[in-house]
Amino acid sequence: MSTIISVFDTTLRDGTQGEGISLSAEDKIKIALKLDTLGVHYIEGGNPGSNSKDIEFFQRVKQLKLQAKITAFGSTRRKGAIAESDANLNRIIESGVQAATLVGKAWDFHVHTALQTTLEENLAMIYDSFRYLSSKGMETIYDAEHFFDGYKNNSEYAIAALKKAEEAGAAWVVLCDTNGGTLPGEIHEIVSRVREQISTPIGIHTHNDCELAVANTLAAVQAGARQIQGTINGYGERCGNANLCSILPNLQLKLGYSCVTDDQLKLLTGTARYVSEIANVNMPVNQPYVGNAAFAHKGGIHVSAILKDSKTYEHIQPELVGNKQRVLVSELAGQSNLLFKAQELNLNLNMENTETRAMIDRIKELEHQGYQFEGADASLELMLREASGDLEEIFTLESFKLLVEKTKDRSVVSEAIVKVKVHGETVYTAAEGNGPVNALDNALRKALYQFYPQIDDMHLSDYKVRVINEKDATAAKVRVLIESTDFSNSWNTVGVSENVIEASWQALVDSIRYALIGKTRSPQSAEAPRERLGLVNH
Amino acid sequence: MSTIISVFDTTLRDGTQGEGISLSAEDKIKIALKLDTLGVHYIEGGNPGSNSKDIEFFQRVKQLKLQAKITAFGSTRRKGAIAESDANLNRIIESGVQAATLVGKAWDFHVHTALQTTLEENLAMIYDSFRYLSSKGMETIYDAEHFFDGYKNNSEYAIAALKKAEEAGAAWVVLCDTNGGTLPGEIHEIVSRVREQISTPIGIHTHNDCELAVANTLAAVQAGARQIQGTINGYGERCGNANLCSILPNLQLKLGYSCVTDDQLKLLTGTARYVSEIANVNMPVNQPYVGNAAFAHKGGIHVSAILKDSKTYEHIQPELVGNKQRVLVSELAGQSNLLFKAQELNLNLNMENTETRAMIDRIKELEHQGYQFEGADASLELMLREASGDLEEIFTLESFKLLVEKTKDRSVVSEAIVKVKVHGETVYTAAEGNGPVNALDNALRKALYQFYPQIDDMHLSDYKVRVINEKDATAAKVRVLIESTDFSNSWNTVGVSENVIEASWQALVDSIRYALIGKTRSPQSAEAPRERLGLVNH
């Protein structure tokens, strides 16, 4: 029976401290659902005392009845104040979470310099805050800020801070390397020493400023820490937090600890890519375990050895973390993956068929341009159905015109004129919108409504644009990702073009085609493929 | 006197195995010059046996008379052949380098599976190859491929391989974790054991597949390794090689080893960014030590502490590695961030002043609407200058019209007509583009060129769009982030509107205003604010 490590995810709180990362309440809900499926034990949702977005998240997440414990974050009470009347502590209680994490100083230098109070008052701030929240029946977690710097500077005081939280009922004391400057050897030694003096279970929270956050987390666990705090893709302030996408497989596949189930570990790559899409941050291709190049082989010698036995140049089987081998000099990998997807959809692709081959090549081309299965399952399904001849034509485009006008001090006006053929009939419509894509969407819906009134059930719920090759941005290829939802489902489509309108049109058309194909199938079979493709958000 | 560690850079050889990395001979020469200034001891230029590009590099680099030793890479002789008649070994000799690195198998499994020969023959291949090159007076380095996997599988054979190279005159035996699957504890233990059996100096070569390449290199050095092999920015196959940009400061600033001089270490950030430019790979903003966000502070509490003493949230002084502190303004931040920013720009914001307070409220309101100034330093600077009355007007918009047309089977056509007033003169221009924003950009440049010919120096280098409130995507507020660059700088601007074109226009206009305001100032003062804002790429 292997030791269980408690996984504490703070992507939604500490992760949002990363430069360029900003998540709406809706984004946070989506990510929380993925994290729960991945099997993390704690999801830190945010700081209810700091902004209203987080309060909305805590209200909405309650209804989801997740397996993971939702935790709220805050600081110990203000100096010279009373815990019971501390606004931020009361916000945490009002948020109705099962667990709360409070950060408190453990470094005497910080107490003097940043907090500008006495060592005694800081200990009282820790004690009062934990006693108050614990008295409300909450599970409380103490993030001992700058613990390692503090221990090196004044070990007695750092330990005293932990003991105060312990006395006041904290369920975990988490040792934080807040500035990310500590080395694995120091971490191992200090965690070992702390264990001799503290009986409360110990957690570890590291930052990547020395590119050692993962190593430091492993060192702490090997020294007896039993909770790991980190974020998906290592998002976080400055150089980021400890990257759970590397820590989980290292602990589970290499060191024999148990964090999530083996099946959940297979969701790691999908989760990492999904979160990077939601955060709209490009994932480095060379990211360990989950990156697109993590198991990609370029060198000719390597490739020939791989074909003999992939163990020759792969430290684990990519499938264990839901990733796959890529051989950059051959397309073998891509094709077998598509065949696998087709099987999932009960489509039989005949590779002898030229249309099929042409479609496969087009899919590979899109993939080559930056298209991602994780990002646009519905578009992939449509292309595969087309490839296998199993796709009805909803409509064909004759032409569209867009007019966008702005005059000084007046806001932009966007109008679209669309000419499409539906069931052999030519339909001509015009509409305006809040933007060109919205105008196109409105005009196209107008044209299709008389044939497919169900189109009213769906709407576009997210729209993202990203430049793929960044040579010359507004003249470069862009990728548009559109998420659509109806009452029960949500699905994602993609468009790629040098023209953002063309790319948006492709994604828009795919989104509508996918929805209406669904409608013409029987309800069950309409749900099925989406379920299998993991398109159902909730 | 601190222990000297020999730094072996393989950016030009193993680094080019990274996905999307391809260097011309000219690129390699440029990078070699930078590496020499940084003070690395060995520069591995490539594999003269594998391609002519590398042969050209070795011919040209000779004339540069660098301090660093130039080394060529190759494999041990072919099985069943004679070293003296091995084409690749002879290419290395012809390349005229002072030192050569030969990779040879140390894992019995690989000898059988990949090489498909006997254990004895592999040992002979090692011995013959090193004897031959050493006999030519070359310094020879043995890269023991898969050493750690080999040692764990058959330690006797792995050691025998090292001994063969040693007998044949190898100056270094480098233990390679080729698949990147080994953990720091194992590395430390195995290197220590090897030291007891091998008297030749030991080197370490790690890969980042477990996100542990840096930790593994440190562990090996602490166990007695005296040469570190790695690449700038950790470029390399799959997840990359050990990142010298993190290893050098860790060894030198944290562990007291001596790799380069303190002055050379200050060149680290510049070198890292220069190499990423030449390789045309975007550097992650959160890259440790050298990234643009490595010392960037976002949280309000952090910022107020930083203003009291940077040691509170920085593990080293950024200047020691040639980087600098940055403060990001965001909804998570307090007023102190804005004050800090204003100080950087030498604008005195008086909080008693009502205009100033109004401006701060406006920035907060804009952030509430979805503006994200942390990703748009230039837009923020423009606002702060406007607030303090220190902003000249470049032009005013009269009107623009955009026409986007698509007809069946023809790609989209985008045309823009722009009417602006510049220095009291009305200018009317039209242009087409790959997309509506590109067309607007082209038309606006046309209008401004006669007044500001310097506008040709700048171009948009990145373009991102995302929906902020996801109620109904194509009718929701969108945020456009634009990155622009000229020959030496890059800056970011933002626009927010329900209309993607309006938002793009705002960001586009800010980007051009920022660039041209710079031009009308004296060169020094034009650079200064960007430098202070951390917008300089290299």
Automatic annotation (TrEMBL), chains A, B:
It catalyses: pyruvate + acetyl-CoA + H2O = (3R)-citramalate + CoA + H(+). One of its GO terms (molecular function) is 2-isopropylmalate synthase activity. The keyword Amino-acid biosynthesis applies. Its EC number is 2.3.3.21. Keywords: Amino-acid biosynthesis, Branched-chain amino acid biosynthesis, Isoleucine biosynthesis, Transferase. GO terms for biological process: isoleucine biosynthetic process; L-leucine biosynthetic process. It comes from the Bacteria. Residues 5-266 form the Pyruvate carboxyltransferase domain. InterPro entries: 2-isopropylmalate_synth_dimer (IPR013709), AIPM/Hcit_synth_CS (IPR002034), Aldolase_TIM (IPR013785), Citramal_synthase (IPR005675), LeuA/HCS_post-cat (IPR054691), LeuA_allosteric_dom_sf (IPR036230), PYR_CT (IPR000891). It is an enzyme of class 2 (transferase). Pathway: Amino-acid biosynthesis; L-isoleucine biosynthesis; 2-oxobutanoate from pyruvate: step 1/3. Belongs to the alpha-IPM synthase/homocitrate synthase family. This is Citramalate synthase. It comes from Paenibacillus aurantius. The lineage of its organism: Bacteria, Bacillati, Bacillota, Bacilli, Bacillales. The gene is cimA.
